[in-house]
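Key result, reporting period 2: structure in, sequence out.
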């Protein structure tokens, strides 16, 4: 998976198609990401002696194939490629504008 926490992404499939947000969490084993403000679900929390029960809105994970990273130059969805910089370090590169994503 080529995503990192903090990347700006756009949803390209599903009920939240077209929404943009930052990646909050990455679940690498399940190939899923949690994006802020996307795929909001209701979570029922049982009360205890000090707090009453409640229903909270939280972000659920979305499959990584349903999001694309936003190109910093063109502000449009793009694929991610890999290249090496001058020091020989591997970097992520935008396929649309060939700009550095790291």
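The corresponding designed sequence is given below.
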């Amino acid at each position: 998976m080529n995503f990192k926490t903090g990347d700006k992404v756009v949803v390209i499939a599903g009920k939240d198609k077209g929404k943009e947000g930052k990646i909050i969490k990455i679940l690498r084993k399940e190939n899923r990401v949690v994006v802020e403000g996307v795929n909001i679900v209701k979570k029922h929390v049982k009360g205890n002696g000090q707090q009453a029960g409640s229903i909270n809105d939280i972000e659920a994970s979305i499959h990584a194939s349903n999001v694309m990273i936003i190109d910093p130059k063109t502000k449009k969805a793009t694929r991610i490629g890999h290249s090496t910089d001058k020091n020989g370090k591997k970097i992520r590169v935008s396929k649309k504008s060939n700009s550095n994503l790291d």
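The CA atoms of residues 32 and 63 lie 4 Å apart. The chain has a mean pLDDT of 94. This case is discussed further under Risks and Mitigation.
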